[in-house]
Design brief:
Keywords: Membrane, Transmembrane, Transmembrane helix
Largest sheet: none
Low-confidence stretches: none
Order of helices and strands: HHHH
Transmembrane segments: 6-27
Distance between the termini: 80 Å
Shape: rod-shaped
Strand content: under 5%
Protein name: Phage minor structural protein
Number of helices: 4
Organism: Bifidobacterium erythrocebi
Length: 103
């Protein structure tokens, strides 16, 4: 019985310490992934804004849908500010023909 008590006394703290370490690593990794996704989504919004709004070109409906989807995900991941401003400008821009009509 004494051996079992010693094993439990050693094993429980070791397992708890390992679990805390794994949880901290998962949280750090999760934050990095979320930040990376937000950066990529913001870059896509910036690209669409530059390609269509800043150049004054009409935006195909499909591209507006892509910008809207990218912004929805960007916003859900905590992005705001500049991305919101650009999204609003994209949505207010002149609609052009669809990609199929344009080709």
């Amino acid at each position: 019985m004494q051996l079992l008590d010693q094993i439990v006394a050693w094993l429980v703290p070791a397992m708890c310490g390992g679990a805390v370490t794994v949880a901290a690593m998962a949280a750090r990794y999760g934050h990095a992934v979320i930040h990376g996704l937000r950066v990529l989504l913001r870059a896509e919004i910036i690209r669409i804004h530059r390609e269509y709004v800043q150049s004054g070109r009409p935006i195909p409906v499909e591209v507006m849908d892509e910008a809207d989807d990218a912004y929805d995900a960007y916003s859900a991941l905590g992005g705001n500010g500049t991305g919101t401003k650009m999204h609003n400008e994209i949505m207010a821009a002149h609609n052009g023909p669809t990609r199929k009509e344009h080709s």
